[in-house]
Amino acid sequence: MMRTPYPITAHSAACGLGRSTQEVFDHLRAGQRGLTPCPLDIPFSAMTGSVPGDLARVPDAWSAYDARVTRLAHLVHEEIKEAVQAACDRWGSSRVGVALGTSTGGIGETEQAYARWKTQDTKPPAHQTVYRYETQHTFHSLADFVAGVSGIDGPRCVVSTACSSSAKVFAVARRWMDAEVADAVLVGGVDALCHTTVRGFKTLGVMADRYSRPFGEDRPGMNVGEGAALVLLERLPATDGDTLAWLLGVGETSDAYRMSSPEPSGRGAAAAMRAALDDAGLSAPQVDCVQAHGTGTRHNDSAESMAIEHVFGTDTPVVSTKSYTAHTLGACGALEAVLSIHSLREGWIPPNLGLPPVDPEIHLALPTQPLRQRCRYVMSNAFAFGGNNCCLLLGADS
Amino acid sequence: MRPIRVLGQGLWSPPYATVEAWRDHLEHPVDSPHHGSRPPCAMVSSRLGRATSMVTRILVEVASQATERAGIRADEVCTVFGSTHGEIHTALAQMEMMHDANGMLSPARFKNSVHNTANGIFSIAAGNRARSTALAGSSGELFAMCLMEAWTLLHTREATAVVLAIAEETLPLPLSELTAESELADSAADAFGVGLLLAADTDAGLSAHPRLRNLRREHAHLPKSSFATESRCSGSVAPALHLLRALAPESSSARESIPNSLVVSQPVGSSGPARADESQARQWVVDLDLVGSVRAVGSRSERNPDHRG
Q1: Is A1 part of any domain?
Q2: Looking at residue A383, which CATH number applies to its domain?
Q3: pLDDT in tens, A125-156
Q4: Is residue B183 very low, low, confident or very high in pLDDT (cuts 50, 70, 90)?
Q5: Could you check whether the bond before residue B172 is cis, i.e. omega within 30 degrees of 0?
Q6: DSSP conformation class of B284
């Protein structure tokens, strides 16, 4: 059954490619990689993606929330705060909601506090002046902060389903608008680079010590990164503004297979893509590009390529932008939605970096040069630990 | 708004293995009820359950109890799991590992460290391929937000049945010392979880009309309840106990007298969110107008003027 499409009226993004949406787009267009040697003190080498430069502290009134993750959120919010304010004026601030995704929230602040506690042998309360678990680490503090600085007074929630978190918030927003509990929703995702994820993926044996090469032969694994992206969805297009794109469909499924490996045939991923197509009332041949989850790990790329082939065949262009941005975990769903919107608006599909050689078992159309072509519909995939799948279908028009 | 129906209930805490055990305790208190230190999670194999945390096991246990009691197959329901602190014990255990000699983590721990671990374990154990989400929220809003997510899934017909599970553990050291003033760190509280099986297109079960309201925070609190304290339950799960009391059989003295409607919300502790302008702080709550087998209160035409549903 076709669902009501909702217009996207503003967006913003920051990641290893840049501190602003325009920087991210410019560096994507230039074929740059937003990756550097990991700045964290870790006992191995890794390439990771960090937002370049220093991040400004959050406003003084919100100093209790100051953390790298909220600084990232603040950075991307500043870019679209006028559009958010316009939505609050248009619908009423209590009719505008916030739904954010994060995988680890402000865990980096607790990592630092814990290290001080261990190495300096001081009692935890001594750190209270510089560390507050409830406002700097908890996942919900991220939504509290964004709602607070933006003046949004509608419902707020945080989805934390690992790497599908900020794709699933699009589904939350749509349900809120369908059920008329909100008229506009600021969705997005934020995750900051931290020891837990960098060391964790290393211990799983999937971290690359060099650039990742999604879908490549002998690919070395994934790069972990940080990022933030916000997308404003409204019930109706702005009367005096631009509609950037439309949310047409969402597909959510579970693999029921393993915690940290996808179902090898890609069955759950394929079901999510088909559900998004059904939701949008579209058929697979109408889709112009698949923005793959494409982490660069052996298992993900193998399963996802089978899923894409089942749904789309082998002619639809498929791109993974994680070779540019690294895997931004809880932020990747929203970040890659923003990159997909760029393709829709510009009729430009970025090439896959690091290819060829392509994995001989993978038979997808993986462009290695930019494609300039009409782009009306993009499928953007996000898959996560626990076999949690979410696919977004975005369109240039409704 | 379409009403939602409560078709099944689940509860687990060290003193109580089931909802009935908890209600029995309210009717016939004993000094130190204790059932067990780990939820049985019969649906989870020992291999799958290896390196899972207490909060994951509680969420899976109460979800499976609620599903089983509703007579609905566990492989068909959509899942909404919520926790304020989620896998915080695992997170701190991993931080401890970072200070070991090699500074590396355990693969088994890491793969079970995500907030949606319980979703994954439930999905794998039940063979459930339906949509599944994991929410985080303050102790004041989490249960209301989970109810709203479940209700909107039913309202939009994205789901025909939703299992909602919410659980917390007490905070581990050193975080419990850092949040000493908060009810989140209540040392008297036990790990606690509640599960509900919710559906819409059925005449069975108890009907509840959800009403979403945005209130000034000082008006958004539950009436102070002794039974949550007696039950050694604090944090985000406490509001769910009000609903379970309302759902008790009419013959039970554990049944709560419901004033007008059930406000599933929770006071925010003194060390809760430090909003820039605390005097203007507002909080979302969900009222449940319970009708049917319990009592009929309110109606869609009697909604509060600030009702937005």
Answers
A1: no
A2: 3.40.47.10
A3: 555 557 888 899 999 999 999 999 999 988 89
A4: very low
A5: no
A6: E
Half-sphere CA count of B47, side-chain side, radius 13 A: 3
The answer to whether the beta carbons of residues B121 and B56 sit under 8 Å apart is: yes
Task: Give yes or no for residue B292 having a pLDDT over 70.
Answer: no
Q: Which CATH architecture has domain B4-273+280-302?
A: 3-Layer(aba) Sandwich (3.40)
Tell me whether residue A286 is in a domain: yes
State how many domains chain A has.
1
Q: Which residues in chain A come in under a pLDDT of 50?
A: none
How much is the average pLDDT of B219-235? 66
The Cα of B253 is separated from the nearest Cα of chain A by a number of Å equal to 36
Has residue B288 got a pLDDT over 70? no
The pLDDT of residue B231 is 80
- Confidence (pLDDT) at B216: 53
A327 labelled catalytic: yes
Residue A251 lies in a domain: yes
A91 touches chain B (CB under 8 A): no
A137 is a catalytic site residue: no
Look-up of token digits 């006071």:
B267
In a domain, A82, yes or no: yes
Closest by CA position to B162, among listed B172, B174, B152, B170: B152
Tally Cβ neighbours within 10 Å of residue A293: 31
Do residues A246 and A11 lie in contact, with contact meaning Cβ atoms separated by under 8 Å?
no
> What's the pLDDT score for residue A123?
56
Nearest to B135 among A114, A157, A256 (CB): A157
Residue of A nearest to B90 (CA): A196
**Residue ranges of domains in chain B:** 4-273+280-302
Which residue range forms the structural domain that includes residue A67?
Answer: 6-395
| Structural contact between residues A333 and A260, judged by C-beta atoms closer than 8 angstroms | no
CA distance A153 to A146: 10
ipTM comes to 0.97
